[in-house]
Amino acid sequence: MYMHRNVTDKFIGTVASCDIISTGSWYGDLPDGIPKEVKFNRKDYYIEEIQHISIKETISVTYGIKWEHISKPVEDKIESFTTTEYSIEEPQKQYLLELMGRRFSDDIVLYDEDECAVQVQLINTDEIEFTYEFPFDNEMRAMSILFRQILSAPTLLLFDGNREKDRIQEIHIEVQKNMYQEYGDVNTLNFNWNEPSISIDCNSKQFGHSSHSHSEYVDNQMIHQLKQDIDFHIGETLYSLDSFSLSESHDLDRDPARGGIVTVRIKWAHKEDTLFIGNVTNQYVPTWYKNLINFIHAHTRDKSLQEFLQSNHTSDRRIYTYCSVYIFKINQEFYYRTDRNDIYEGDIVKVPFGSDNAVRTGRVESISYHTRYDVPYDLNRTKFIIDKLPTSIECVEITCS
């Protein structure tokens, strides 16, 4: 549907030149030419992109930004910040012009609306100008896709406004958790969009275990659905992320033991990589990251993805008692927890040891007190002292024999 601004409803003759001016919402980072006030207070403005495609001797696209304050009566401003020339063979250019002439020589339904997103100006070989204005029209989606393919420019608004924002090529996630002293768990996930393949590695230096889930040949239907979920639900959010972003947690909570550090790197087909860094806590992990992990988990059913999310514990201000226990038969010290108030340095205790929790005897070498956030060994994996034994010499000798 179109609103006609010329003497006749239909284009007549042969198209000699064409101008297409489209206006749509701006995505991604704002360019350098935009005032700092607009950049810093972006949520207070309507920000639109102006794309002027000119098909004459050559094909050029001029990009601009238009902004208007949501509440203040500030006049709109338009800043042209870049013009891109597209090399195209003469037959292809003539083909595009011919398509435009054919499309606008068809029967046109008049559309009366003040706010039109697209303006098309056609000039025929007799230098007669024809102007059409209309809202974005999905009936012209096929022509829009054809233009984008011929020009190799996926971000053109054109006639439908449904530009391809950019294509994700790869998502790489690294999560470092339980960073107590020299310990640390490092979990990595790599999702290659084009292979397609998903690989998940969970490695714990502290607890001496690792798991690997490499899916080099994954079900195509599953990958297709996963891509759709990511694109539809969080695609715009991922595209709009800053190229480098420090989450709010870096200003308010710099202790990496509070959950850990997550790094997300997204490779795109056209623009530079997006890099996000944040803390893995309930308070600071963004919703899009939780959704991303949940989408992958829903389609792969990989339980190890739980390691990529924040801990489920609530705020904890309790004090935990840790005992360093020297186990006689092992000749090494290990951390154990206790809730008892009658255990002191030098006490002889029974403790569970190893994967089978065999009962061993040891001596308490030191006692320390910690919050959840500065424990010397992971709170949820530290075992408890079973019992305290009499500390007579005879008992120790019998126990150690």
Polypeptide structure, described:
The protein has 401 residues and is an alpha+beta fold. The protein has three domains: 3-151, no CATH class; 176-308; 320-400, 3-Layer(aba) Sandwich (GIY-YIG endonuclease), CATH 3.40.1440. Helices cover 19% and strands 36% of the residues. The protein has helices spanning 36-40, 90-104, 141-151, 220-240, 249-252, 287-300, 393-400; strands at 3-4, 15-25, 45-55, 59-69, 77-86, 118-124, 129-134, 168-177, 185-192, 197-204, 209-215, 244-246, 261-268, 274-279, 320-327, 332-338, 348-353, 358-370, 387-389. The protein has a seven-stranded antiparallel β-sheet with strand order 1-7-6-2-3-4-5, with helices on one face. The chain has a seven-stranded mixed β-sheet with strand order 11-10-9-8-13-14-12. A five-stranded antiparallel β-sheet has the order 16-15-18-17-19, covered by helices on one side. A hairpin with a 4-residue loop joins strand 15 and strand 16. The longest helix has 21 residues, at 220-240. Mean pLDDT is 79; it is low at 1-8, 247-257 and 393-401.
Fraction in beta strands:
35-45%
Residues in helix, %: 10-25%
Q: What is the number of beta strands?
A: 19
The H-and-E topology, N to C, reads as EEHEEEHEEHEEEEHEHEEHEEEEEH
Distance between the termini: 95 Å
- Spatial shape: elongated
Low-pLDDT residue intervals, each spanning 5 or more residues: 1-8, 247-257, 393-401
Mean pLDDT, to the nearest integer, reads 79
Tell me the radius of gyration: 32 Å
Query: How many domain modules?
Result: 3
* Tally of separate helices: 7
User: How would you characterize the largest beta sheet?
Assistant: 7 strands, antiparallel
How does the helix and strand content classify structurally?
A: alpha+beta
- Biggest sheet, strands in spatial order? 1-7-6-2-3-4-5
